[in-house]
Design a protein that fits this description.
Elements (H helix, E strand, L loop, with lengths): L4 H10 L7 E4 L2 H10 L4 E5 L12 E4 L2 H11 L3 E2 L2 E2 L3 E4 L4 E12 L4 E7 L6 H7 L4 E6 L7 H11 L6 H13 L2 E12 L4 E3 L3 E4 L9 H4 L7 H8 L3 E4 L4 E5 L2 H13 L6 E4 L5 H13 L6 E8 L4 H14 L6 E7 L2 H11 L4 E3 L3 H14 L1
Parallel strand pairs: 14-15, 14-16, 16-17, 17-18
Antiparallel strand pairs: 1-6, 2-3, 2-6, 4-5, 7-8, 7-10, 8-9, 10-11, 10-12, 13-15
Helix pairs in contact: 2-3, 5-6, 10-11, 11-12
The structure holds guanosine-5'-diphosphate and manganese (II) ion (MN).
Guanosine-5'-diphosphate binds next to strand 2 and strand 10.
InterPro entries: ATP-grasp, ATP-grasp_succ-CoA_synth-type, ATP_grasp_subdomain_1, Succ-CoA_synthase_bsu_CS, SUCC_ACL_C, Succ_CoA_ligase-like_bsu, Succinyl-CoA_synth-like
Pfam family, one: Ligase_CoA
EC number: 6.2.1.5
């Protein structure tokens, strides 16, 4: 998972890496207040999880608080490479004397980390590497040894960075290890006209496999940019929002994935991925249905269950109980097969909800759900 710049900046600051004073907001009015607090002149920076904001008008200087408000109003809502700007960060402007590039990145093939550093920062490193490969130093790091002062000195020397960057190089490694990151990148790392070293841009990619011990990001909403995904995660559901119109609930990741394919094969687009796994069907069904039904894109829902440890009658029972708490507003196509399928189907037949239909095959159910999505 990528962090936003302001979140990565916060981590850098916690680890003692010098960064410009800054604050973040989603309101242009508040941007004016922040600019005032930061001394008037500020850099207004779009918070999107993509690089190259500078070139696309997502990083702009504002001369005073009124200009900061106006610029923020222009940048908020802007589209940068398919990312809509929801927040801006306002930062104290820095007088740059030199721009460097430094990053630690996981080198999966080598089973190591790699320090990538260059005295030619500011532009995208790929461009520098293409134009002048000798200007980009690549130093392997043994993960067991990490980066201490000698190694940091080696990296700085190889890239032609000034010795004052060694401290930042060491702390940046501490960010990587301490925060369970797969990538930390500073572009540009600058030397100011007064000779101070500052991280002017901050990028961090966290290792999702370490989320269990970095759970502060769950509550800060960094993991789930989509509000429905956040709501689902809060209920412990394995839910991914997609952009189609057929809501999908299934048991087991494999079955859910093939359900996505079959629905797509019927000419409809899946609206989500929801795996109910093998847990308590009534609760999960109620939670899952409420999340899916509150997605305005969803036109029909396909529940595809192959009963195993979770028997079909328990799932059917879960659906019926869910109807007590969740008002069904969209057609539901249910396909139950496997363990106790006959009893499961009977439970749904008995409930006879006008919006619930059953199908005996996965293909038939997918076709029906696709049709309903297109007609309702
Ligand atoms: P990116 O384009 O998404 O990587 O965004 P950056 O945060 O790296 O900003 C783009 C460029 O704007 C940087 O490379 C700098 O050259 C410039 N920039 C950003 N902040 C400042 C600042 O405070 N002062 C000056 N002079 N330039 C800045
Ligand atoms: Mn940058």
């Amino acid at each position: 998972m990528d962090l936003y710049e302001h979140q990565a900046r916060g981590l850098f600051e916690e680890h003692g890496i010098p960064v410009p004073r800054a604050d973040v907001t989603s309101s242009a009015k508040e941007a004016r207040e922040i600019a005032r607090r930061l001394g008037g002149r500020v850099v207004v920076k779009a918070q999107v999880k993509t690089g190259g904001r500078g070139k696309t008008g997502g990083v702009r200087l504002a001369a005073d608080p009124a200009a900061a408000e106006l610029t923020s109003r222009q940048i908020l809502g802007m589209d940068i490479k398919g990312h809509t700007v929801g927040k801006v960060m306002l930062a104290q402007p820095i007088d740059i004397e030199a721009e460097f590039y430094v990053a630690y990145v996981l080198d999966r093939a080598a089973g190591r980390f790699l320090a990538v550093a260059s005295a030619e920062g500011g532009t995208e490193i790929e461009e520098v590497a293409a134009r002048r490969p000798e200007a980009v130093a690549r130093i392997p790091i043994d993960p067991a040894e990490g980066v201490h002062s000698a190694k940091a000195g080696e990296i700085a020397a190889a890239a032609g960075l000034p010795p004052q960057t060694v401290d930042v190089l060491e702390r940046l490694w501490e960010v990587l290890v301490g925060e369970d990151a797969l990538l930390v990148e500073v572009n540009p790392l600058v030397r100011t006209e007064k000779g101070q070293i500052l991280a002017l841009d901050s990028k961090v990619t966290l290792d999702d496999n370490a989320r269990f011990r970095q759970n502060r990001w769950d509550t800060e909403g960094a993991v789930h940019d989509d509000p429905l995904e956040a709501a689902a995660a809060a209920k412990g559901l394995n839910y991914v929002k997609l952009d189609g119109e057929v809501g999908i609930i299934g048991n087991g990741a494999g079955l859910v994935m093939s359900t996505l394919d079959v629905v797509a094969g019927c000419g409809a687009r899946p609206a989500n991925f929801l795996d109910i796994g093998g847990g308590a069907p009534a609760r999960i069904m109620a939670d899952g249905l409420s999340v899916i039904l509150s997605d305005p894109d969803v036109k029909s829902v396909f529940v595809n269950v192959f009963g195993g440890i979770t028997a079909c009658d328990a799932v059917a029972d879960g659906i019926v109980r869910a109807l007590d708490g969740v008002r069904l507003t969209k057609p539901l196509v249910v396909r139950l097969d496997g363990n106790n399928a006959v009893r499961g189907r009977a439970i749904l037949d008995e409930r006879a909800h006008p919006l619930i239909q059953q199908a005996t095959t996965m293909d038939g159910a997918a076709r029906r759900a696709a049709q309903l999505a297109h007609t309702s």
